[in-house]
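Ticket opened by: R.M.
Priority: normal
Category: complex prediction / small molecule

The reporter submitted a protein together with zinc ion and asked that the result be attached to this ticket for the collaborator who will pick it up next week. Submitted input follows.
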Amino acid sequence: MIRYTRGTDGAEIMKEVCVICGEDANTLHIAEVAVKPDLDNRVLLIKDRNDSDQTMKKKRERLDEQTASFIAQGRMDSTDASEFRTKGELKFGMKPEALCSMSIDIITGVTRSFCYRTDNAKFLAKTFSGTTLSASFHASSEEIHTSVGKKVGIDRKGNIIRMKAEKKVDMIDKIAKEDAGDLEYKGPLATTWFRALRTAQQTYLIEGAQSIRAYVERYGILVKDMSVVARYRNRAEFVDAVNNDVARGETSLR
Ligand SMILES: [Zn+2]
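Result attached by the on-call engineer:
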C-alpha cells in the first residue's frame, strides 16, 4: 500500500507501508511510480531521486522491467508475475505488496523481504489460515534458533523467515551493497568456533543440545536461541557441558 503524507516543508511524501505491520517500509520517489499514457509516444524525461534524467516508460514496459527484481526481493512470485502479465496491473498499481525489511543472509546467499516488527500489535493480530501470528510465530514449538537460523520475521504469505547471518539491504537503492548495513551473525553463529564448524556439525549440535531437557531447563532462552555456545571456549567444552545433563533415554552428543 502507498501512503501519502506531507513533510515539514509541505512537500508531498509517498511511502510504501508494510502489508503486515502497517509501519513505513520505504519512501518512494515520484520517478519510481510515474508512467506515461499508453498512447503517448513522445520521449518524456523525469528527474529521479539522484536528480538524474530518466526516460519515462509506459506502464507495461515499466512493470516488465521491474518484475525480475521484485521476484528476487521476494515481493512477487511467478504466480503474481503471470497474473500481472494478464491484467497489466499489480495489487497496488505500480508496486507489489511491500514489507518493512529486506536482508541478505550472507551465509546462504538468499535475499528475503519480510516484516521484522514481530511484537507490533498489528503483526500479532494478523491471521494466516485462520491462525494469528501471535499464536503461530510465537509458538513455543518454533525455536528461536534452529539449524536454518534465527527466526527474524514473516514473509508476505505468512511463512517464518530465518537467517543465519543478516545484512540489511538499503531499501532505497534496493541494492545488496557490501556497506548497506552491518553484518549481524545470529544466535550461535556469533561465536567464532561455532561459525567455523561445517553446516552439518552446526545442525547436529543445535538439534542435539535442544533435545536435552535438563540442559534446556538450565539455560532456557539461551538454548532456544543457541547463544549459549558463547559460554564455552570450544566444541569439546560445549559437548561436555551438554552431556552432563543427559538423562536416561536421551542421546549424548559425540
Ligand atoms: Zn512490517
